[in-house]
Structure prediction request, 82 residues.
Amino acid sequence: MEYEPPKPRYQVGDFVKCWYTLYQYYYYYMDEEEDNQPVYGIIVEVDYAKYESDWFTDILYVVFCTDGMYRFFVEQEVWKIA
Prediction:
């Protein structure tokens, strides 16, 4: 049986609010000033995190933020605005 990746909740082009909440799992460094500060942006790519062979476990979003930076978020850190 072939494993199908999960379906993303959001699509490329969606305007979203993002908030880092899973620091210990995905991020090696966080600036304390930016803790609890949401960012806004447009989803530019949807990808999947693979942990074992072909099993996908998390959906990753690449977001072009309003401050001009690209950031990566897992699905639990993204909320659609419009």
About this structure: The mean pLDDT is 81.
